[in-house]
Amino acid sequence: MAFDYDLFVIGGGSGGVRAARVAAAGGARVAIAESSRMGGTCVIRGCVPKKLMVFASGYREMFDDARSYGWDLEDGAFDWPRFSQHLNSELDRLEGVYRNLLKGSDVEIYDTRARLADAHTVELADGAKKTAKHILVATGGRPVRPDMANAHLGIVSDDIFHLPELPKRLLIIGGGYIACEFAGIMNGLGVEVTQFYRGAQILRGFDDEARGLVAEMMREKGVNLHLGTNIVEMARASEDHTASWTGTESDAAMGAPAGERVGEDAARGSGPVWVKATNGTEAVYDAVLFATGRDPNTEDMGLEEIGVEIGRRGEIVVDDYSQTAVPSIYAIGDVTNRVQLTPVAIREGMAFVETVFNGNPTPVDHDLIPSAVFTQPELGTVGLTEEEAREREPVEIYCTSFRPMQSAFAGRPDRVLMKLVVSKENRTVLGCHIVAPGAGEMIQLAGIAVKMGATKEEFDRTVAVHPTMSEELVTMKAPMRVA
Fold it and tell me: Angle 226-183-229 (CA atoms, 0-180°, nearest 5)?
Protein backbone atom coordinates (compact mmCIF):
# COMPACT_ATOMS: atom_id res chain seq x y z
CA MET A 1 0.00 0.00 0.00
CA ALA A 2 1.28 3.47 -0.91
CA PHE A 3 1.09 6.04 1.89
CA ASP A 4 1.19 9.82 1.71
CA TYR A 5 3.85 9.83 4.43
CA ASP A 6 6.14 7.46 6.24
CA LEU A 7 5.32 9.25 9.50
CA PHE A 8 2.52 11.54 10.57
CA VAL A 9 3.01 13.25 13.95
CA ILE A 10 0.00 14.65 15.80
CA GLY A 11 1.21 17.33 18.21
CA GLY A 12 3.85 20.00 17.78
CA GLY A 13 5.42 19.95 21.23
CA SER A 14 9.07 19.28 21.99
CA GLY A 15 8.78 15.48 21.69
CA GLY A 16 6.74 15.46 18.50
CA VAL A 17 8.90 18.06 16.78
CA ARG A 18 12.09 16.23 17.68
CA ALA A 19 10.76 12.92 16.37
CA ALA A 20 9.56 14.54 13.15
CA ARG A 21 12.86 16.30 12.50
CA VAL A 22 15.07 13.30 13.23
CA ALA A 23 12.93 10.94 11.15
CA ALA A 24 12.94 13.39 8.24
CA ALA A 25 16.70 13.84 8.51
CA GLY A 26 17.01 10.11 7.94
CA GLY A 27 15.07 10.34 4.70
CA ALA A 28 11.51 9.65 5.88
CA ARG A 29 8.56 11.57 4.42
CA VAL A 30 7.11 13.31 7.48
CA ALA A 31 4.16 15.57 8.28
CA ILE A 32 3.09 17.14 11.56
CA ALA A 33 -0.24 18.64 12.68
CA GLU A 34 -0.64 21.14 15.53
CA SER A 35 -3.93 22.83 16.41
CA SER A 36 -2.38 25.54 18.58
CA ARG A 37 1.12 27.01 18.53
CA MET A 38 4.20 25.11 17.50
CA GLY A 39 6.37 24.37 20.52
CA GLY A 40 3.70 22.86 22.74
CA THR A 41 3.16 23.28 26.46
CA CYS A 42 6.80 23.66 27.47
CA VAL A 43 7.74 26.41 25.05
CA ILE A 44 4.47 28.31 24.80
CA ARG A 45 2.61 27.91 28.11
CA GLY A 46 4.83 25.97 30.49
CA CYS A 47 8.52 25.60 31.28
CA VAL A 48 9.92 28.53 29.29
CA PRO A 49 7.50 31.36 30.14
CA LYS A 50 7.24 30.08 33.72
CA LYS A 51 11.02 30.15 34.19
CA LEU A 52 11.19 33.68 32.77
CA MET A 53 8.55 34.66 35.32
CA VAL A 54 10.64 33.02 38.05
CA PHE A 55 13.56 35.21 37.00
CA ALA A 56 11.36 38.32 36.99
CA SER A 57 9.95 37.57 40.44
CA GLY A 58 13.39 37.20 42.01
CA TYR A 59 14.53 40.76 41.48
CA ARG A 60 12.52 42.26 44.33
CA GLU A 61 14.54 40.24 46.84
CA MET A 62 17.74 41.06 44.96
CA PHE A 63 17.10 44.78 45.47
CA ASP A 64 16.83 44.22 49.23
CA ASP A 65 20.01 42.15 49.25
CA ALA A 66 21.90 44.72 47.18
CA ARG A 67 21.38 47.37 49.85
CA SER A 68 22.84 45.01 52.44
CA TYR A 69 25.87 44.65 50.21
CA GLY A 70 26.41 48.39 50.01
CA TRP A 71 24.47 49.36 46.90
CA ASP A 72 22.37 52.53 47.10
CA LEU A 73 19.13 51.43 45.43
CA GLU A 74 15.49 52.39 45.64
CA ASP A 75 12.61 49.96 45.21
CA GLY A 76 10.96 50.12 41.82
CA ALA A 77 7.55 48.99 40.63
CA PHE A 78 7.08 45.90 38.52
CA ASP A 79 5.60 46.71 35.12
CA TRP A 80 3.54 43.65 34.15
CA PRO A 81 2.42 44.95 30.70
CA ARG A 82 6.02 45.69 29.71
CA PHE A 83 7.24 42.29 30.90
CA SER A 84 4.27 40.52 29.29
CA GLN A 85 4.94 42.17 25.93
CA HIS A 86 8.59 41.13 26.06
CA LEU A 87 7.60 37.61 27.14
CA ASN A 88 5.19 37.19 24.23
CA SER A 89 7.79 38.48 21.79
CA GLU A 90 10.22 35.85 23.05
CA LEU A 91 7.61 33.09 22.71
CA ASP A 92 6.89 34.25 19.15
CA ARG A 93 10.61 34.03 18.41
CA LEU A 94 10.85 30.52 19.84
CA GLU A 95 7.81 29.35 17.90
CA GLY A 96 9.47 30.69 14.77
CA VAL A 97 12.60 28.71 15.60
CA TYR A 98 10.57 25.50 15.88
CA ARG A 99 8.80 26.16 12.58
CA ASN A 100 12.05 26.92 10.79
CA LEU A 101 13.64 23.74 12.14
CA LEU A 102 10.74 21.71 10.78
CA LYS A 103 10.78 23.45 7.43
CA GLY A 104 14.54 23.05 7.22
CA SER A 105 14.06 19.32 7.74
CA ASP A 106 11.40 19.17 4.96
CA VAL A 107 8.63 18.30 7.41
CA GLU A 108 5.21 19.31 6.06
CA ILE A 109 3.25 21.36 8.61
CA TYR A 110 -0.52 21.33 9.02
CA ASP A 111 -1.77 24.08 11.32
CA THR A 112 -4.96 22.32 12.28
CA ARG A 113 -6.44 19.72 14.60
CA ALA A 114 -6.02 16.08 13.61
CA ARG A 115 -7.64 12.85 14.73
CA LEU A 116 -7.31 9.20 13.76
CA ALA A 117 -9.66 7.69 11.20
CA ASP A 118 -8.01 4.27 11.15
CA ALA A 119 -4.67 2.63 11.86
CA HIS A 120 -2.99 4.44 8.97
CA THR A 121 -5.21 7.47 8.35
CA VAL A 122 -5.29 10.90 9.94
CA GLU A 123 -8.29 13.16 9.40
CA LEU A 124 -7.72 16.91 9.55
CA ALA A 125 -10.26 19.42 10.83
CA ASP A 126 -11.23 20.43 7.29
CA GLY A 127 -12.10 16.84 6.42
CA ALA A 128 -8.95 16.10 4.43
CA LYS A 129 -7.42 12.69 5.05
CA LYS A 130 -3.73 11.80 5.01
CA THR A 131 -2.30 8.31 5.18
CA ALA A 132 0.93 7.27 6.89
CA LYS A 133 2.80 4.04 7.49
CA HIS A 134 3.34 5.12 11.10
CA ILE A 135 1.44 7.60 13.25
CA LEU A 136 2.93 9.20 16.37
CA VAL A 137 0.58 10.81 18.89
CA ALA A 138 2.31 13.52 20.94
CA THR A 139 -0.59 15.72 21.96
CA GLY A 140 0.56 16.34 25.55
CA GLY A 141 -1.75 17.29 28.39
CA ARG A 142 -3.93 20.12 29.61
CA PRO A 143 -4.77 21.67 32.98
CA VAL A 144 -8.11 20.66 34.44
CA ARG A 145 -10.60 22.43 36.68
CA PRO A 146 -12.31 20.62 39.56
CA ASP A 147 -15.83 19.30 39.10
CA MET A 148 -17.71 21.95 41.05
CA ALA A 149 -20.20 24.73 40.49
CA ASN A 150 -18.76 27.90 38.96
CA ALA A 151 -15.32 26.38 38.39
CA HIS A 152 -15.25 28.34 35.12
CA LEU A 153 -14.75 31.48 37.19
CA GLY A 154 -11.24 30.30 38.03
CA ILE A 155 -8.25 30.42 35.74
CA VAL A 156 -5.67 27.69 35.02
CA SER A 157 -1.93 27.83 34.47
CA ASP A 158 -2.31 28.46 30.72
CA ASP A 159 -4.18 31.70 31.50
CA ILE A 160 -1.49 33.20 33.73
CA PHE A 161 0.62 34.30 30.80
CA HIS A 162 -2.28 36.23 29.23
CA LEU A 163 -3.54 38.25 32.19
CA PRO A 164 -4.16 41.86 31.15
CA GLU A 165 -2.90 42.94 34.56
CA LEU A 166 -1.73 41.25 37.75
CA PRO A 167 -4.34 40.59 40.42
CA LYS A 168 -3.82 42.29 43.76
CA ARG A 169 -5.05 39.20 45.60
CA LEU A 170 -4.75 35.68 44.24
CA LEU A 171 -5.98 32.35 45.59
CA ILE A 172 -4.19 29.24 44.34
CA ILE A 173 -5.85 25.85 44.75
CA GLY A 174 -3.45 22.91 44.77
CA GLY A 175 -0.20 21.69 46.29
CA GLY A 176 1.72 20.27 43.35
CA TYR A 177 4.72 21.79 41.64
CA ILE A 178 2.67 24.09 39.37
CA ALA A 179 0.71 25.51 42.31
CA CYS A 180 3.83 26.05 44.41
CA GLU A 181 5.87 27.54 41.58
CA PHE A 182 3.19 30.11 40.74
CA ALA A 183 2.69 30.91 44.43
CA GLY A 184 6.35 31.92 44.61
CA ILE A 185 6.27 33.76 41.29
CA MET A 186 3.20 35.84 42.02
CA ASN A 187 4.31 36.55 45.58
CA GLY A 188 7.65 37.77 44.23
CA LEU A 189 5.87 40.05 41.76
CA GLY A 190 4.01 41.75 44.61
CA VAL A 191 0.70 39.87 44.52
CA GLU A 192 -0.90 38.92 47.84
CA VAL A 193 -0.97 35.13 47.50
CA THR A 194 -3.08 32.62 49.42
CA GLN A 195 -2.71 28.91 48.72
CA PHE A 196 -5.10 26.12 49.71
CA TYR A 197 -4.01 22.50 49.64
CA ARG A 198 -6.23 19.72 50.92
CA GLY A 199 -3.31 17.46 51.91
CA ALA A 200 -1.08 17.54 54.97
CA GLN A 201 1.96 18.87 53.07
CA ILE A 202 2.67 20.32 49.63
CA LEU A 203 4.63 18.58 46.86
CA ARG A 204 3.34 15.06 47.45
CA GLY A 205 5.77 12.45 46.16
CA PHE A 206 8.89 14.45 46.93
CA ASP A 207 11.15 13.87 49.93
CA ASP A 208 9.31 14.78 53.15
CA GLU A 209 12.18 16.76 54.66
CA ALA A 210 12.76 18.68 51.45
CA ARG A 211 9.13 19.61 50.86
CA GLY A 212 8.77 20.60 54.50
CA LEU A 213 11.56 23.14 54.12
CA VAL A 214 10.07 24.47 50.87
CA ALA A 215 6.74 25.03 52.65
CA GLU A 216 8.49 26.76 55.55
CA MET A 217 10.41 29.08 53.23
CA MET A 218 7.31 29.86 51.15
CA ARG A 219 5.56 31.06 54.30
CA GLU A 220 8.67 32.99 55.37
CA LYS A 221 8.63 34.84 52.05
CA GLY A 222 4.97 35.80 52.41
CA VAL A 223 2.83 33.08 50.83
CA ASN A 224 -0.26 32.52 53.01
CA LEU A 225 -0.24 28.71 52.80
CA HIS A 226 -3.17 26.77 54.30
CA LEU A 227 -2.76 22.99 54.48
CA GLY A 228 -5.70 20.64 55.01
CA THR A 229 -7.87 23.26 53.34
CA ASN A 230 -9.94 23.20 50.18
CA ILE A 231 -12.50 25.29 48.39
CA VAL A 232 -16.17 24.53 49.09
CA GLU A 233 -18.02 27.18 47.11
CA MET A 234 -17.18 29.96 44.70
CA ALA A 235 -19.29 32.58 42.96
CA ARG A 236 -18.98 35.89 41.22
CA ALA A 237 -18.60 38.39 44.06
CA SER A 238 -21.58 40.62 44.78
CA GLU A 239 -21.59 44.00 46.51
CA ASP A 240 -22.46 42.20 49.76
CA HIS A 241 -19.40 39.99 49.39
CA THR A 242 -17.06 42.90 48.66
CA ALA A 243 -18.35 44.82 51.65
CA SER A 244 -17.34 42.19 54.20
CA TRP A 245 -16.36 38.61 54.76
CA THR A 246 -16.48 36.20 57.67
CA GLY A 247 -13.58 34.76 59.61
CA THR A 248 -11.06 35.77 62.22
CA GLU A 249 -8.76 38.76 61.85
CA SER A 250 -5.92 36.49 60.69
CA ASP A 251 -8.22 35.04 58.05
CA ALA A 252 -8.54 38.49 56.53
CA ALA A 253 -5.14 37.91 54.96
CA MET A 254 -6.78 35.13 52.93
CA GLY A 255 -8.40 37.72 50.66
CA ALA A 256 -9.99 41.13 50.43
CA PRO A 257 -12.36 43.08 48.21
CA ALA A 258 -10.98 44.40 44.97
CA GLY A 259 -12.36 45.49 41.64
CA GLU A 260 -9.67 44.41 39.21
CA ARG A 261 -10.74 42.00 36.49
CA VAL A 262 -8.40 39.25 35.41
CA GLY A 263 -8.17 36.10 33.35
CA GLU A 264 -10.63 34.75 30.82
CA ASP A 265 -13.64 36.16 32.72
CA ALA A 266 -12.25 39.68 32.41
CA ALA A 267 -12.96 39.54 28.69
CA ARG A 268 -16.61 38.89 29.53
CA GLY A 269 -16.80 41.90 31.82
CA SER A 270 -16.96 39.98 35.09
CA GLY A 271 -15.34 40.84 38.41
CA PRO A 272 -13.81 39.37 41.56
CA VAL A 273 -14.57 35.92 42.94
CA TRP A 274 -16.04 35.05 46.33
CA VAL A 275 -14.75 31.85 47.88
CA LYS A 276 -15.79 29.77 50.88
CA ALA A 277 -13.19 27.37 52.34
CA THR A 278 -13.52 24.10 54.24
CA ASN A 279 -12.33 25.89 57.39
CA GLY A 280 -15.44 28.07 57.24
CA THR A 281 -13.75 31.28 56.17
CA GLU A 282 -14.98 33.39 53.27
CA ALA A 283 -13.02 35.86 51.19
CA VAL A 284 -12.98 37.72 47.89
CA TYR A 285 -10.07 37.43 45.46
CA ASP A 286 -9.28 39.15 42.20
CA ALA A 287 -8.47 35.73 40.70
CA VAL A 288 -8.59 32.06 41.64
CA LEU A 289 -6.00 29.79 40.03
CA PHE A 290 -6.80 26.08 39.82
CA ALA A 291 -3.58 24.06 39.79
CA THR A 292 -5.28 20.77 40.53
CA GLY A 293 -3.77 18.49 37.95
CA ARG A 294 -3.38 17.81 34.24
CA ASP A 295 -5.05 15.25 31.98
CA PRO A 296 -3.72 13.76 28.73
CA ASN A 297 -5.13 15.23 25.52
CA THR A 298 -6.91 12.18 24.12
CA GLU A 299 -10.52 13.33 23.90
CA ASP A 300 -12.28 13.00 20.54
CA MET A 301 -9.21 11.70 18.77
CA GLY A 302 -10.74 8.44 17.55
CA LEU A 303 -8.23 6.39 19.51
CA GLU A 304 -10.45 3.86 21.24
CA GLU A 305 -12.57 3.43 18.11
CA ILE A 306 -9.58 1.98 16.25
CA GLY A 307 -8.32 -0.16 19.14
CA VAL A 308 -5.84 2.07 21.00
CA GLU A 309 -6.05 1.34 24.73
CA ILE A 310 -6.81 4.29 26.98
CA GLY A 311 -5.98 4.22 30.69
CA ARG A 312 -7.88 5.40 33.73
CA ARG A 313 -6.64 8.99 33.50
CA GLY A 314 -7.24 9.16 29.76
CA GLU A 315 -3.63 8.33 28.94
CA ILE A 316 -2.56 6.29 25.93
CA VAL A 317 -1.25 2.92 27.10
CA VAL A 318 2.07 2.03 25.45
CA ASP A 319 4.82 -0.58 25.85
CA ASP A 320 8.50 0.04 26.57
CA TYR A 321 8.99 1.12 22.95
CA SER A 322 6.09 3.63 23.00
CA GLN A 323 3.95 1.36 20.81
CA THR A 324 0.19 1.18 21.37
CA ALA A 325 -2.10 -1.81 20.97
CA VAL A 326 -2.37 -0.81 17.30
CA PRO A 327 1.06 -1.69 15.80
CA SER A 328 1.26 1.30 13.45
CA ILE A 329 0.45 3.84 16.17
CA TYR A 330 2.89 5.09 18.79
CA ALA A 331 2.63 7.72 21.53
CA ILE A 332 5.17 9.73 23.50
CA GLY A 333 5.26 12.48 26.10
CA ASP A 334 2.63 13.63 28.55
CA VAL A 335 -0.20 11.99 26.60
CA THR A 336 1.16 8.64 27.88
CA ASN A 337 1.29 9.92 31.49
CA ARG A 338 4.59 8.13 32.15
CA VAL A 339 6.98 10.88 33.24
CA GLN A 340 5.66 14.37 32.53
CA LEU A 341 8.91 16.16 31.74
CA THR A 342 9.95 17.78 28.47
CA PRO A 343 13.41 16.17 28.28
CA VAL A 344 11.75 12.78 28.77
CA ALA A 345 9.37 13.42 25.85
CA ILE A 346 12.36 14.34 23.69
CA ARG A 347 14.19 11.14 24.72
CA GLU A 348 11.06 9.14 23.94
CA GLY A 349 10.85 10.78 20.51
CA MET A 350 14.47 9.93 19.76
CA ALA A 351 13.98 6.34 20.94
CA PHE A 352 10.89 6.05 18.73
CA VAL A 353 12.90 7.04 15.65
CA GLU A 354 15.69 4.61 16.56
CA THR A 355 13.16 1.81 16.99
CA VAL A 356 10.94 2.41 13.97
CA PHE A 357 13.19 4.03 11.36
CA ASN A 358 16.72 2.97 12.26
CA GLY A 359 16.03 -0.69 13.02
CA ASN A 360 17.47 -0.34 16.51
CA PRO A 361 14.80 -1.22 19.12
CA THR A 362 15.41 1.29 21.92
CA PRO A 363 13.38 1.42 25.13
CA VAL A 364 13.46 4.64 27.14
CA ASP A 365 15.20 4.54 30.49
CA HIS A 366 12.81 6.20 32.95
CA ASP A 367 14.94 5.39 35.99
CA LEU A 368 16.86 8.00 38.02
CA ILE A 369 15.63 11.07 36.16
CA PRO A 370 16.80 14.35 37.74
CA SER A 371 14.14 17.03 38.07
CA ALA A 372 13.67 20.46 39.59
CA VAL A 373 10.75 22.37 41.06
CA PHE A 374 11.22 26.10 40.55
CA THR A 375 9.78 27.15 43.86
CA GLN A 376 11.59 29.81 45.85
CA PRO A 377 13.91 28.29 46.97
CA GLU A 378 14.19 25.64 44.28
CA LEU A 379 13.94 21.92 44.93
CA GLY A 380 16.21 19.58 42.97
CA THR A 381 15.85 15.83 43.25
CA VAL A 382 17.10 12.58 41.76
CA GLY A 383 16.55 8.99 42.86
CA LEU A 384 14.66 7.68 45.86
CA THR A 385 13.21 9.79 48.64
CA GLU A 386 14.08 8.78 52.19
CA GLU A 387 10.58 7.37 52.58
CA GLU A 388 10.82 5.27 49.41
CA ALA A 389 14.29 3.99 50.26
CA ARG A 390 13.24 2.89 53.75
CA GLU A 391 10.60 0.66 52.19
CA ARG A 392 13.24 -1.12 50.10
CA GLU A 393 16.26 -1.59 52.34
CA PRO A 394 18.17 -0.25 55.37
CA VAL A 395 19.58 3.20 54.61
CA GLU A 396 21.75 5.91 56.11
CA ILE A 397 20.64 9.52 55.81
CA TYR A 398 23.23 12.26 55.43
CA CYS A 399 21.60 15.65 55.75
CA THR A 400 22.44 19.21 56.62
CA SER A 401 20.40 22.42 56.69
CA PHE A 402 21.99 25.84 57.10
CA ARG A 403 21.81 29.53 56.25
CA PRO A 404 23.79 30.13 53.04
CA MET A 405 26.44 32.83 53.05
CA GLN A 406 24.81 35.20 50.57
CA SER A 407 21.43 35.50 52.27
CA ALA A 408 22.85 35.29 55.81
CA PHE A 409 25.03 38.34 55.13
CA ALA A 410 21.94 40.17 53.87
CA GLY A 411 20.13 39.33 57.10
CA ARG A 412 17.55 37.02 55.57
CA PRO A 413 16.47 33.90 57.50
CA ASP A 414 16.61 31.64 54.42
CA ARG A 415 17.83 28.08 54.91
CA VAL A 416 18.94 25.45 52.45
CA LEU A 417 19.02 21.65 52.57
CA MET A 418 21.52 19.11 51.20
CA LYS A 419 20.56 15.46 51.59
CA LEU A 420 21.91 12.09 50.49
CA VAL A 421 20.07 8.78 50.89
CA VAL A 422 22.65 5.96 51.05
CA SER A 423 22.26 2.18 50.92
CA LYS A 424 23.61 0.71 54.15
CA GLU A 425 24.53 -2.51 52.38
CA ASN A 426 26.49 -1.39 49.31
CA ARG A 427 26.96 2.34 50.07
CA THR A 428 25.35 3.43 46.77
CA VAL A 429 23.79 6.90 46.82
CA LEU A 430 20.14 6.08 46.18
CA GLY A 431 18.86 9.63 46.22
CA CYS A 432 19.96 13.24 46.35
CA HIS A 433 17.70 16.10 47.38
CA ILE A 434 18.59 19.79 47.39
CA VAL A 435 16.55 22.79 48.50
CA ALA A 436 18.45 25.94 47.64
CA PRO A 437 18.73 28.76 45.13
CA GLY A 438 20.04 27.16 41.95
CA ALA A 439 19.08 23.64 43.05
CA GLY A 440 18.03 22.86 39.49
CA GLU A 441 21.55 23.55 38.25
CA MET A 442 23.11 21.52 41.07
CA ILE A 443 20.90 18.46 40.67
CA GLN A 444 21.74 18.15 36.98
CA LEU A 445 25.38 17.54 37.91
CA ALA A 446 24.65 15.44 41.00
CA GLY A 447 22.30 13.38 38.83
CA ILE A 448 25.24 12.18 36.73
CA ALA A 449 26.93 10.66 39.77
CA VAL A 450 23.72 9.08 41.07
CA LYS A 451 22.90 7.67 37.63
CA MET A 452 26.41 6.16 37.44
CA GLY A 453 25.84 4.41 40.78
CA ALA A 454 28.37 6.41 42.79
CA THR A 455 28.89 5.41 46.41
CA LYS A 456 29.00 7.67 49.42
CA GLU A 457 32.77 7.12 49.63
CA GLU A 458 33.16 8.30 46.02
CA PHE A 459 31.25 11.46 46.91
CA ASP A 460 33.60 11.86 49.92
CA ARG A 461 36.71 11.48 47.75
CA THR A 462 35.62 14.45 45.66
CA VAL A 463 37.34 17.65 46.80
CA ALA A 464 34.92 20.38 47.88
CA VAL A 465 34.56 23.63 45.98
CA HIS A 466 34.75 26.32 48.65
CA PRO A 467 32.89 28.47 49.52
CA THR A 468 29.74 27.06 47.92
CA MET A 469 26.48 25.62 49.18
CA SER A 470 26.94 22.42 47.21
CA GLU A 471 30.25 21.55 48.88
CA GLU A 472 28.14 20.09 51.69
CA LEU A 473 27.29 17.19 49.37
CA VAL A 474 30.88 15.94 49.66
CA THR A 475 31.69 16.93 53.25
CA MET A 476 28.96 15.18 55.29
CA LYS A 477 30.92 12.48 57.13
CA ALA A 478 28.49 11.08 59.72
CA PRO A 479 24.91 9.99 59.01
CA MET A 480 22.21 12.02 60.68
CA ARG A 481 20.11 8.88 61.13
CA VAL A 482 19.94 5.24 60.13
CA ALA A 483 16.65 3.73 59.03
Answer: 20
Read off the pLDDT of each residue in 403-418 and give the average, rounded to a whole number: 97
**CA–CA distance, 378 with 90 (Å, rounded to integer):** 24
**Beta pairing class for 378-383 and 429-436:** antiparallel
In tens, the pLDDT along 192-241 reads: 999 999 999 999 999 999 999 999 999 999 999 999 999 999 999 986 66
Q: Could you read off the pLDDT of 236-267 as tens digits, one per residue?
A: 998 666 543 333 323 333 332 333 333 444 33
Q: What counts of helices (H) and strands (E) characterise the chain? A: 15, 22
- The residues facing 377 across adjacent strands are none
Between CA 446 and CA 424 the distance in angstroms is 20
Is 454 in a helix, a strand, or coil?
coil
Mean pLDDT of the residues in the chain: 93
Question: What does residue 439 show for φ and ψ, rounded to 5 degrees?
Answer: -60, -35
Q: In what order do the strands lie in the sheet with 224-227?
A: 224-227, 192-197, 169-173, 287-290
DSSP result, 355-418:
HHTSS-------SS--EEE--SSEEEEEE--HHHHHHHS-EEEEEEEE--HHHHHTT----EEE
Distances in whole angstroms, Cα of residue 164 to Cα of each of 27, 79, 85, 161, 433: 45, 12, 10, 9, 37
Query: Crossing angle, helix 342-356 and helix 14-25, to 10 degrees?
Result: 30
Residue 43, H or E segment:
helix 40-45
Tell me how crowded residue 108 is: count the other CB atoms within 10 A of its CB.
17
Under DSSP, is residue 228 helix (H, G, I), strand (E, B) or coil?
Answer: coil
Residue 143, strand partner residues = 294
Which residues are identified as catalytic?
466
CB neighbours of residue 311 within 10 Å: 13
What is the rounded distance in angstroms from the CA atom of residue 367 to the CA atom of residue 371? 12
Nearest to 306 by CA among 324, 292, 321, 288: 324
